[in-house]
Design a protein that fits this description.
By secondary structure, the chain is an alpha+beta fold. It has 5 domains: 62 residues, Helix Hairpins; 238 residues, DNA ligase/mRNA capping enzyme (D-amino Acid Aminotransferase, Chain A, domain 1, 2-Layer Sandwich), CATH 3.30.470; 78 residues, Nucleic acid-binding proteins (OB fold (Dihydrolipoamide Acetyltransferase, E2P)), CATH 2.40.50.140; 144 residues, Orthogonal Bundle (DNA polymerase, domain 1), CATH 1.10.150; 77 residues, Rossmann fold, CATH 3.40.50. Helices cover 38% and strands 19% of the residues. A 5-stranded mixed beta sheet has the order 2-13-10-3-9. The protein has a 5-stranded antiparallel beta sheet with strand order 16-15-14-17-18. A 4-stranded antiparallel beta sheet has the order 5-4-7-8. α2 packs antiparallel against α3, α14 packs antiparallel against α19 and α19 packs across α20. The longest helix is centred in the N-terminal third of the chain and has 21 residues. Bound molecules: 2-(butylsulfanyl)adenosine.
Length: 685
């Protein structure tokens, strides 16, 4: 058994002492006793122990990458030097005017004909960050805030893998006493998409866009949470320094790259305004192909002496400018508010707009979410509104255009329809719901939604929204079962369909029969049953017959299913039409039995959990479902038999009791880790 396995706490303490000793020899005395790679090996070992035993991480640890204890509040800190903003340019004309302004200013300073060298950098759509390194060691990370005062987010910055905790130095190099590195924290598009997929799968809410997601993450109080969310960083400026002399921005970028910071490889230096303009246009054309969002290009005068002479006007340096890409919001006329029934009849409002170009795309429709959202925004057909298109998300109507709100006689507010816009059945509004509903289960609008959802959930590639509409119009498909009765010969007759695409679709439909029972339960359209509940029901009941025979009481024993949900599920499963659909699909060969592990088996089997306090991300029900899905038990009170207490914010007496009984306490991140790795690592200690 290794030293660490025998007593990880002792080994961690020893490593920390050794690392601190060597860091002092290296940095303060300039007289290292061991080589860099030996130092790195010790650091790696400590990281390994801390990763396995998060409870051993201390704030002063030389690693501090795994994330220390949560902070109770974000502390405001003053920047050593103001963080400036940038004036904007929107086109070549603006850019030439900027260069002329600089020439005129310098002429007044007695510099007659300056030759400018420009640096053009992508303007990353993230959050500006100031990082302070003292004697080569990361001391503080702070958000921009208002430019003068930011928030201390050091605990989170330490979890960002690409930010070096200490400067990378050449052999024998002494780090500057002080250097401030500035740059942008962001989330890459691929990381953002993957994170949202993970969250959706776990039944958590998803983030709007990468910027919001990065902003929310960097301001987390618990760094262990930040550590699970992939943040990146581009360095783009050196701020205050002591013991470091740089003469140009190019110097600064080279210094940053050489000392361990990610610097965008596509940053270019250019000699003329015309070359800068061409470069900005090139970035605009590349925008959609990048793995991070940019909202423009930042152009900086390279030479520090010229920068100094040019100075600052208000909050903007005269020596830099932001070339902003076309905005993602635009003003247009709201033609009408229309309503679309969802698969359970909820009427969703959407906006029909006078077509308008936003960030290179023409928008005619935009979502309005629900009635309350519509009322709150107080937008009215016939008036101008502001629309937003962010990334790849569905365009939204944000608000009325500022000028219309002051008008004396505004057109009337849009009305919630009294009849379903598709089938004309009178609508109803269930008490406590934000949606008015079409109550007709045979409504073609509702059926279309059910069928497209079914095709998506069952992963039938090629069976998209338009094709579903056509199949419905032709009368070939009324229920999901009809998909499995299509044949290649008939499909091949459709416009734009050949024998080959017909065969391909048939293969995809056939393949969907292999989808597991839990998936099928989600796909057939039982209100309240999504991906997670579908799977939970499948595991709990193991066959459709057992589920159909179950009463409310029994259904409510399913992880994550409360009494109200159980009642709704039970009622729908008693509906003869639902039973008929299930029978149909079963005969057609879909899976209605479960073959995954039964409840009680899994990574957490045999373990008992108690939940207390508010968890940062998961609701009580979600956490319970996750534990039960992995075979664990959740009980209400702490005893000696409790394996773990999962404690969130404002945990009270249960936490005290667990501590007095020596029951291990985990936070949400600890639970998530336990779910991923099982309790094996902990059993050893
Ligand atoms: S330089 C005086 N460079 O843009 C220098 N800023 O409006 C000011 N930004 O708050 C910053 N990419 O968040 C600079 N390559 C880049 C940038 C960049 C994004 C952001 C930054 C800043 C804002 C300025």
């Amino acid at each position: 058994m290794s030293e660490a396995a025998a007593d990880p706490a002792a080994r961690a303490a020893q490593l920390r002492a050794e690392l601190n000793h060597h860091a002092r020899r290296y940095y303060e005395l300039d007289d290292p006793e061991i080589a860099d790679d030996a130092y790195d090996a010790l650091l790696d070992e400590l990281r390994g122990i801390e990763a396995e035993h998060p409870e051993l991480v201390s704030e002063d640890s030389p690693t501090c990458r795994v994330g220390a204890a949560p902070v109770s509040d974000l502390v405001k800190v003053a920047h050593l030097q103001r963080m400036l903003s940038l004036a904007n340019a929107h086109n070549g004309e603006d850019l030439r005017a900027w260069v002329t302004r600089m020439r005129n200013h310098l002429a007044r300073e007695g510099i007659a004909d300056p030759s400018f060298r420009f640096v053009a950098e992508p303007k990353i759509d993230g959050l500006a960050m100031s990082l302070i390194y003292r004697d080569g060691v990361l001391e503080r990370g702070a958000t921009r805030g208002d430019g003068e005062i930011g928030e201390d987010v050091t605990h989170n910055v330490r979890t960002i893998a690409v930010i070096p905790p200490r400067l990378v130095l050449a052999p024998g190099e002494t780090p500057p006493a002080l250097v401030e590195v500035r740059g942008e924290v962001y989330m890459s598009l691929s990381d953002f998409t993957a994170l949202n997929e993970r969250r959706a799968e776990a039944g958590l809410s998803t983030f709007m866009n990468p910027r919001n997601s990065a902003a929310g993450t960097i301001r987390q109080l618990d760094p262990r949470l930040t550590a699970q969310r992939p943040l990146s960083f581009w360095a783009y400026q050196v701020g205050v320094t002591d013991g470091l002399e740089l003469h140009s921005h190019t110097d600064a970028l080279a210094w940053l790259a050489a000392h361990g910071f990610p610097v965008n490889p596509d940053i270019t230096t250019l000699d003329s305004a015309e070359a800068v303009i061409a470069q900005c246009e090139a970035w605009a054309a590349r925008r959609g192909a990048l793995d991070f969002e940019i909202d423009g290009v930042v152009i900086k005068v390279d030479d520090y002496e010229l920068q100094r002479r040019l100075g600052v006007v208000g909050r903007d340096p005269r020596w830099a400018i932001a070339w902003k890409f076309p905005p993602t919001t635009a003003k247009t006329r709201l033609l009408a508010v229309r309503w679309n029934p969802g698969k359970f009849g909820d009427l969703h409002p959407y906006a029909e707009l006078e077509p308008v170009r936003v960030a290179g795309v023409t928008i005619k429709l935009a979502t309005l979410h629900n009635e309350e959202d519509l009322a709150r925004k107080d937008i009215r057909p016939g008036e101008d509104v502001i629309v937003l298109r962010a990334g790849d998300v569905i365009p939204q109507v944000l608000s009325p255009a500022p000028h219309v709100v002051e008008a004396a006689d505004r057109p009337p507010r849009p009305q919630v329809p009294a009849r379903c816009p598709v089938c004309e059945t009178p609508t109803v509004k269930p008490e406590g719901s934000v949606f008015t509903r079409c109550p007709n289960r045979d409504c073609a609008g509702r059926r279309w939604q059910l069928l497209t959802t079914f095709a998506g959930v069952m992963d039938i590639v090629g069976l998209g929204e338009k094709l579903v509409s056509r199949l419905m119009e032709l009368g070939w498909v009324r229920s999901a079962a009809d998909f499995y009765r299509l044949d290649a010969a008939r499909l091949a007759q459709l416009d734009g369909f050949g024998a080959r695409s017909a065969e391909k679709l048939m293969t995809a439909i056939e393949a969907s029969k292999a989808q597991p029972f839990g998936r099928v339960l989600f796909a057939i359209g039982i209100e309240e049953v999504g991906a997670v509940t579908g799977e939970n029901l499948a595991r709990q009941f193991r066959s459709i017959d057992a589920l159909l025979a179950a009463g409310e009481e029994e259904i409510s024993q399913t992880p994550g299913v409360g009494p109200k949900m159980a009642a709704a599920i039970c009622a729908q499963l008693a509906d003869p039409k639902m039973v008929a659909l299930i029978e149909d699909l079963r005969e057609l060969g879909l899976r209605f039995v479960e073959d995954g592990p039964p409840p009680g088996e899994g990574a957490l089997s045999g373990l008992t959990f108690v939940l207390t306090g508010t968890l940062p991300e998961l609701t009580r029900e979600e956490a319970t479902a996750l534990i039960q899905n992995a075979g664990g038990k959740v009980t209400g009170s702490v005893s000696k038999k409790t394996s773990y207490l999962i404690a969130g914010e404002a945990a009270g007496s249960k936490l005290a009791k667990a501590e007095s009984l020596g029951v291990p306490v985990l936070d949400e991140a600890g639970l998530v880790e336990l779910l991923a790795t099982g309790p094996a690592a902990d059993k050893e200690s």
